[in-house]
Amino acid sequence: MKKLIFTLLVAIPISLSAQLEAGVQVGVSNYLGDLAPSGLWTSLGETNFSAGAFARYNVGKWVSIKGALNYGKISADDSDGSPSEFKRNRNLSFRSNIFEFALTGEFNILGYQPYNLERVFSPYVFGGIAVYKFNPQTQFEGEWFDLQPLGTEGQGIDGRPAPYKTLQVSIPFGGGLKYAINDKWNLGVELGFRKTFTDYLDDVSTSYVDLATLAANNGELAAELSWRGDEVNPDATPPNDGQGRGDSNDLDWYLISGITVSYNFTDNGLVGARGRSRGRKGCPTF
Q1: Is 94 part of a structural domain of the chain?
Q2: Domain assignment present for 286
Q3: How much helix, strand and coil, in percent to the nearest 5, is found in the chain?
Q4: Is residue 169 within 8 Å of 131, Cβ to Cβ?
Q5: What is the pTM of this model?
Q6: Looking at the predicted structure, is the pLDDT value of residue 278 above 70?
Q7: 103, 105, 178, 248: most buried by Cβ count inside 10 Å?
């Protein structure tokens, strides 16, 4: 019982000084992977829309904890102006919707306290963990096909990798800026990177399987979508079994960034009253 009382005595002041806000983020999403031109972020033409909603629990002015539900779309195309002859001859493309739940901690570098407009601006950095769902697709003869079930790199065939999971964990991190318009509304901008633990956001990772073997085991469509160089050059020679298709040494990344708008829900008066009281007495606020 003494331990319980002590815990409550410690927790109550923390909860009273904390502030809850909720908001939305609207921006862009992109990806880095085997289909990105020159190993850089994909071209502006492959930048897509993203959106999300979040709740942020401000534990004092220095630290915040945020839970967010985000949506983003990523895409790339080997024919998108890549200087690589290998990529142009490979002629692969994909798109994927990403649905993410992220839990992150934020550190406000200058301190942030919108109540009484005490600290109205601060850059911040963040990091945490996320669970996300993706589903790479490609277009063939005017129709979109899910790539993971096809096993375009021979997934499921003896001696080849097992089918990859489309529900994965990532590490979100990045930074941003917060600004208090008033003691109720906040405006911000955020740049966020996601380190993944898969090389299959784009369905490309390892090497080709002999196309006849792939067709016999995983179906004709898997073979058609594994290598599409013949669509660029009908006389092109199909790749050999084991020839490189992607780079399994570099895992894929995705990015979600945007502008945030949030509303401060809780102010039981104690935080503001404490600040006003100190201000009247000429004492500094903390």
Answers
A1: yes
A2: no
A3: 20, 40, 35
A4: yes
A5: 0.85
A6: no
A7: 178
